[in-house]
Amino acid sequence: MIRACKVKLGRAPKQEAKLRRVLGLCCALYNAALQQRREAWQRQRVSLSFYEQCKELTQLRSDDDDYRNLPAQMTRVTVLHRLDKAFHGFFRRVKRGEKPGFPRFRSWERFDTLTFTTQDWHIDGKKLVLNVRKDPIVFQMRNTIYREGEIKGLRIVRGATRWWAHFLVDIGPAPTLKKSSTGVGIDVGLRTFATMSDGTQIEHPRFLRKSIDKLRESGQSVSHKRKGSRNRGKAKLVLARAHEKIANRRRNFIHQTVATLVKRYDGFAVEKLNVQEMSSTEHEPDEMTKKGARGLRRGIMDSGWTMFGTHLAAKAEEAGLPFVRVNPRGTSQRCSGCGSVVRKTLRDRTHYCAACGLVMDRDENAARNIYDLGRRSATGDARVEGAEVSSE
Ligand SMILES: [Zn+2]
Prior knowledge:
Layout: E1 2-8, H1 13-44, H2 50-63, H3 65-69, H4 72-95, E2 113-116, E3 121-124, E4 127-130, E5 137-140, E6 150-158, E7 163-170, E8 184-188, E9 194-196, E10 201-202, H5 207-223, H6 230-264, E11 268-271, H7 275-280, H8 291-319, E12 323-326, E13 350-352, E14 359-361, H9 362-378, E15 388-389
Parallel strand pairs: 8-11, 11-12
Antiparallel strand pairs: 1-7, 2-6, 3-4, 4-5, 6-7, 8-9, 9-10, 12-15, 13-14
Helix pairs in contact: 1-4, 2-4, 5-6, 5-8, 6-8
This protein binds zinc ion (ZN).
């Protein structure tokens, strides 16, 4: 099992400037390589391969001092491999008959990660050294690598206000899967963060409302300042800090929630999330009248649900507990008691089944259906459509 272990890097303006330069070079190369692939495709309908572009990179490195100084393997993985993955995703979707957009150019602001394998860096006491040729980049590590195991890779990430090192640690094989006796189905939504098939509910974290006010305030402050002015720069930093604070609190909330769940239950069925769909219709509550607040809240929780799912999957795997993702289609309309379809609008908060008389909270009914789908797919019932055992 590979797990990321985040280490805070100490402040060092000179080293940060060097890193920004490396990121800039990688970003420029990414866009150039993307351009090359687009042209090859549009003009001659040929698709350039990763290996062809690697050869070109070798050529570039022999011609250009800046690129020669960058660690070769890091550049390949950060730029060409990432681009290759984007194209694989693109062609996979084309094959499926979808109409995906071409992989897009990256702006400098959104290019924020350098990926290293096991080479081109080392640790020296409390220092992390990135072996850029001639001029190594050195950072103090503010906390230790708290995961035990073999380090398989390293990502250097530019956060809103500081830099991070994410070590990818192999923490050993997953324990054998236990048999579940107190499994649970989980329905997530905008009204209640999560509803369990046993009726337990987890509310949205309290900080959400306050944070949204703060976000809106800082956002307005940015838009009221003149573009390019010093004050606008400052306001932007305040906004970035507000975002970072929310991200931290959201992460804490999710980690705590998941820790509680893994103690209480020994098997999990979760809906396969399609965040876009989820935000638009099914899960949208009706009483949230303030449009702005709704948008922000949704934006914050969209990534929260995704993070919740992946974190729960990871923790379940570490504990040897079954974790299943199921297709949520129909789970809110079907009766968990008898299987009849009970049509509901978004306003209907209660499930009332005329066929069998079952009356219960709408989300709890959905969670029970999710649990049922999960349980059947875990026991290999082939009739379950769309359920799959996840091995994240
Ligand atoms: Zn029923």
